[in-house]
UniProtKB/TrEMBL annotation:
MF GO annotations: ATP binding; long-chain fatty acid-CoA ligase activity
Superkingdom as given in the UniProt entry: Eukaryota
Stored InterPro entries: AMP-binding_CS, AMP-dep_synth/lig_dom, ANL_N_sf, LC-FACS_euk
Catalytic activity of the protein: a long-chain fatty acid + ATP + CoA = a long-chain fatty acyl-CoA + AMP + diphosphate
Function: Catalyzes the conversion of long-chain fatty acids to their active form acyl-CoAs for both synthesis of cellular lipids, and degradation via beta-oxidation.
The protein's name in its UniProt record: Long-chain-fatty-acid--CoA ligase
Amino acid sequence: MLGWRTFVDGKVGPYVWKTYKEVYDEVLLIGSALRASGAEPGCRIGIYGANCPQWILAMEACNAHGLVCVPLYDTLGPGAVNFIIDHAELDFVFVQDKKVKELLNTVCTSAQRLKAIVCFTVLKEEEKDMATQKGIKPYSWTEFLQMGKEYPQEIFPPQPFNICTIMYTSGTSGDPKGVILTHETVATFVRGIDLFMEQFEDKMTVDDVFLSFLPLAHILDRVIEEYFFHKGASVGYYHGDLKELRDDIMELRPTFLAGVPRVYDTIYESIKKALDELNPIRRCIFNALYKYKLAWMNLGYKQKNASPLADLLAFRKVKAKLGGRLRLLVSGGAPLGSEVEEFLRVTCCCFVIQGYGLTESCGPATFCFPDEMCMIGAVGVPAVYNELRLEEVPDMGYNPLEDPPRGEICLRGKTIFSGYYKNPELTRESIQDGWFHTGDIGQIFPNGVVKIIDRKKNLIKLSQGEYVALEYLENVYGITPVVEEIWVYGNSFKSMLIAVVVPHEENIKKWACLKGHMGSFSELCCLDQTRDYILSELKSTAERNKLRGFEYIKGVYLEPVPFDMERDLVTATLKKKRNNLLKHYKAEIDALYQKLEAQRRS
C-alpha cells in the first residue's frame, strides 16, 4: 500500500513497503491513542509535514473515528501554520521531525493551545522540553502506537454529512481559506472517477503505482491517493528532494505521475537538450519519426498504435528515462503549454492529460480524454459527477451567448465544498443559487471541450479607463522563447503596463554569444542591451497576437532567479502571489515608472 525510501549510511536506499493489513492495524492503534488522549468525534487534528506513510496513517485514523483532518502547509512557513492552528482550533498535531522546531518556535504563538504533538519519528530532548514548557504533551510515533495498544477503542464511523477535512487553500492574497469537504463529497469524487474510467479500454489495477511528490496538503495529490487506496493499488513517496525526483522515478518505476506544468516543462527541456546533443543525422531521424507519429495521432489513431516503429526506434528511450512503466501523466494547477503537451503525448508512450479543478471542487472538475488530440491546450470536458456552466462577465466583455461562448466557470454537484470554515460571508459570495463561482474565465468549444483563458479577479483598469486582464496577458507573453516566467503589473494610476521577467537562461546566453556580450547569466540580466532585446521580443509577441496598444509591455525589470516559494512569491501550486510580488519588487517598479515618465516627458 505505502512505500518509502530508507537511508543507508546517509544515502538513499531502495523502497520498502507496508501492506494494506499492516496499515490498517497501525491506523487502529493511532486512532485508539487519539481517543485515549481526549480526542472526541468532530475534534480537529492537524498534520504538518512532507508526504510520507505517517501522513496517511494519521489521516485514516481521523477517518476511522469521525475526527476532522486539517493539513498544515509544509510550504507556506510558520505564518500560515500559526493562522490555521488558531482558526481551525486544533487540539492535536502530527508533525514531521524537521518541522517540530517551526511548530514550537516563538513565532507560532497558536501552538500553545495544543494538547499534544505526535512526531512522525522521534523527538529530541530539547524539543520535548520546548513542548512541555508550552503545556503540550510530546509523543514519538512509537510511544503513540504503544498508547493505542494499551487503550484500544472502538472505531466511530462518520456519517456522510460529517466533515472529513478542512483544507486551507494557499491563496494568492490574504489569509488562507478553510475549505470544508464532507465524507460524502470525497466518496462521491472517488466513485465518480470509477464512472469516468469505465469509458476507456485501459483500466486501473492493483498493480498500478503512483509516485507522490505534490504536497498532500493540496487537493490533487490527496484525492489521487484516496482513489489508489480505493482500488487497492500502491503509493510510493519521494524521498524529500525534488531536485533528485528522477532518482525516485527510476527506483520506483511508477505507472502514474501527477504534477504541475513546471515539472513537465523540466522534463521537456531535458529531452530537448539531449536531442540537441545528438549528431545531426540522428536528430533528423528523431524529428522525422516525431512528425510521422504525430500525423497518425492527429488522424485519430491511439498513441500506442500510431507508430510502433517510431516507439521502438526513438521514443522507448524517452519512456525508459521515466522508469519504463509509465501509463499516465496528469497535469494540473496551471495551464500546460500546448507545445509541451503535444511533445509529451508523442514521445512518452503514455497518456498525457490535463484537468481543471480547485480545492472547492474536491479536485478535478473537468478531464481531458486520452488519445483525443483536439483537447491539447484545453482542460477537457466536465466530469460525470458535476455540472458546469458559464456566466457573463460584462466588465471583461465575456458573454456565454456569443460565439465563441466565454464566461466565468460555475460548478454544481455533490463534489462541491460545503462552505468556507468560519466565513459565511465569503461562502455566500462564492456559492450563489447553488452554483460555485470559480473566478476562472473559460471558453467552451463546439465539441464541448473547455479551455481556461483568463482569471476574473486579475482584472485591472488603467488610468485611461481601459480594462486589462493580467493573467491572460501573462499567458500570451509567456510563450515568447526568451521568457521563462513573467509577472505583468499595472494599476489604475498608471497608463502603461510593465513586467518583471525571468529570462530563459539558455536562449539569452545563445543571443549574448552571437552579439558578443560576455558574463554570467546574472550579469547579462543587468545589461541594457538584454533588456531592450527582451522588450522587442515581447513587442513581436504582442503584434502576432493582435494585442491592443495599451496591452503592450512598456518596461521590464529582468530577474535572474525564478519566482519561488522560499521568497513567498508563488503558492505551492506555483500560482503567483501578486501582492507579495508587488511588495518584493516595489522599488524596481517605482524606478521603472519614473524612467518611463521621464522618457514620455522628454
